[in-house]
Design a protein that fits this description.
L-fuculose-1-phosphate Aldolase, alpha+beta, two-stranded antiparallel ribbon, binds zinc ion, single chain
Length: 211
């Protein structure tokens, strides 16, 4: 499973969805039906196309490390993983056509409803408004929009489980920035990005053709 984290990031890099130091992936694993109290997350300031299992950081899900070299988007990952009951993976990248479509003012949630190959397998949640990268605001909006739920500053995963709704979507767009997807493993989360990116490419080419 950890090997797939690096494989997914290399594929995202190959497709131009991230530059070398962008993007982050996290995982919380279930072993023998028991969810781990640890999460794994890609490190900060490392070339993401060279990530291998030994580079991935393991943290207690309730730990809030200060000055620790975890991903800039650590809070976004932690919020989304906090109430996992089975293995859950979070992928945050900047796929070109999806970001371009949002930038062009296309409502990717509405548009996604017209494409059966997307909506059958990938639920697209409400787009997150423009927030600063790495901010708590981005973490909160992304988590909230993936859940259709209320938002609080959690102190522990127990508190999260009492106050947040279940994850309701597979992916959300983040305006002028990227996407955040959730899956049962890194490739599952990757496929949600890929499907949305594919229809955004079609939408942009269709729009360009009508002008
Ligand atoms: Zn980002």
């Amino acid at each position: 499973m950890l090997t797939a984290v690096g494989e997914v990031l290399r594929e995202c890099y190959r497709r131009g969805w991230i530059t070398t130091r962008d993007g982050n992936v996290s995982l919380r694993m279930s072993l023998e039906g028991q969810i781990s109290s640890f999460m794994h997350i890609t490190p900060k300031g490392v070339r993401k196309n060279t990530i291998h299992p030994e580079h991935i950081i393991k943290l207690n899900i309730d730990a809030l490390p200060a000055n620790f070299p975890v991903s800039t988007e650590f809070h976004m990952h932690r919020y989304i993983l906090s109430d996992a009951k089975t293995t859950r993976c979070v992928v945050h990248v900047h796929p070109t056509y999806t970001v371009a479509a949002m930038y062009a003012g296309i409502d990717i949630v509405e548009a996604s409803k017209s494409f059966p190959e997307l909506k059958r397998y990938t639920r697209v949640g409400p787009t997150v408004p423009v927030c600063e990268a790495g901010s708590i605001q981005l973490a909160e909006f992304t988590n909230k929009n993936l859940r259709r739920g209320s938002n609080v500053h959690p102190q522990s995963s127990n508190q999260i489980m009492e106050s947040w709704q279940e994850i309701a979507y597979d992916i959300v767009g983040q305006e002028n920035h990227g996407v955040c997807s959730v899956g049962k493993d890194p490739w599952d989360a990757f496929e949600h990005v890929e499907r949305l990116e594919h229809i955004c490419k079609i939408l942009l080419q269709a729009n360009a053709g009508t002008k």
